[in-house]
């Protein structure tokens, strides 16, 4: 507000930016809203009137009942959570160690290792899946009836694929931390591990939260890896189950809409609850690092 107490009018540039961002948000959210409202309609009504909001007699939960009766939704959720949580915790652990070492320690080959981390972000999983699959096949952890081994075979490529991003994000944030705090802890008798877990990690919570959220979501939504490693129905994660829905049940749009809704609702809840950490973790390291 100005000194006179009157609010300044937004500039023309800001107004154009707001209009553009609002239109972009509408085009992004509309397909999601369309899927959710059609999940509560009879499948015959979807074909004739797919744009009205289901109210009263038009609203039904039959699609969700059918999804739980015909599809192993809970089993797929369990497999997805096992894979995604494993990937998230392992990436946070090792990426944190690697970022701390690359920021605070000076050793021969440090720059080369950092360049390798950056290079790791340039190669998509599509370009490495064949050699990775052959390697895991030689270990005997793919094409097996063991659910535990199949889930591990799914998690390992995802851990490798997310590691570079996590290290880069954490490096940017750790660089912004004053080294005086770590030196004071060292003078007080703390060893390297105590300094890391009691000083660095608490101060780096926003960045770790960013890494955790993105890693979890990328793992949760990764259908490509699951197509290679999860062959049996009892091993399917939620995105693999959704990918096979059409071949299993045909073009039942009500069932498809309800299944998609069940898949995306947990992701939306996680994002809405933790979105402030995403912005804070990404911007703090970028501005200060």
From TrEMBL:
Residues 77-274 form the ABC transmembrane type-1 domain. It is a multi-pass membrane protein. It comes from the Bacteria. Keywords: Cell membrane, Membrane, Transmembrane, Transmembrane helix, Transport. Pfam families: BPD_transp_1 (PF00528). Its main location: membrane. Signal peptide: none annotated. The keyword Protease does not apply. The chain crosses the membrane at residues 12-37, 81-103, 112-133, 153-174, 195-220, 253-274. GO terms for cellular component: plasma membrane. The keyword Transmembrane applies. Gene3D superfamilies: MetI-like. CDD domains: TM_PBP2. One of its GO terms (biological process) is transmembrane transport. It is found in: Cell membrane. InterPro entries: MetI-like, MetI-like_sf. Belongs to the binding-protein-dependent transport system permease family. PANTHER family: ABC TRANSPORTER PERMEASE PROTEIN MG189-RELATED-RELATED, SN-GLYCEROL-3-PHOSPHATE TRANSPORT SYSTEM PERMEASE PROTEIN UGPE. This is Raffinose/stachyose/melibiose transport system permease protein. It comes from Anaerosporobacter mobilis DSM 15930.
């Amino acid at each position: 507000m100005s000194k006179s107490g009157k609010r300044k009018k937004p500039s023309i540039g800001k107004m154009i930016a707001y209009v553009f961002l609002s239109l972009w948000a509408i085009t992004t959210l509309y397909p999601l809203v369309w899927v959710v409202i059609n999940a509560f309609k009879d499948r015959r009504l979807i074909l004739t009137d797919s744009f009205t909001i289901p109210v009263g007699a038009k609203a039904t939960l039959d699609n969700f009942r059918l999804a739980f009766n015909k599809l192993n939704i809970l089993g797929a959720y369990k497999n997805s959570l096992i894979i995604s949580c494993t990937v998230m915790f392992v990436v946070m652990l090792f990426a944190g160690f690697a970022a701390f070492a690359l920021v605070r320690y000076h050793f021969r080959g440090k720059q080369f290792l950092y360049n390798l981390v950056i290079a790791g972000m340039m190669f998509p999983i599509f370009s490495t899946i064949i050699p990775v699959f052959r390697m895991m096949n030689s270990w005997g952890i793919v094409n097996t009836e063991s659910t535990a081994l199949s889930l591990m075979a799914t998690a390992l490529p995802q851990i490798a694929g997310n590691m570079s991003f996590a290290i880069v994000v954490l490096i940017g944030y750790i660089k912004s931390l004053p080294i005086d705090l770590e030196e004071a802890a060292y003078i007080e008798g703390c060893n390297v591990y105590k300094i890391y877990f009691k000083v660095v990690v608490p101060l780096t919570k926003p960045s770790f939260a960013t890494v955790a959220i993105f890693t979890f979501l990328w793992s949760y939504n990764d259908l490509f890896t699951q197509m290679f490693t999860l062959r049996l129905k009892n091993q399917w994660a939620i995105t693999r189950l959704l990918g096979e829905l059409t071949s299993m049940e045909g073009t039942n749009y009500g069932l498809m809409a309800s299944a998609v809704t069940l898949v995306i609702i947990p992701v939306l809840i996680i994002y809405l609850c933790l979105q402030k950490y995403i912005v804070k973790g990404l911007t703090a390291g970028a501005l200060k690092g």
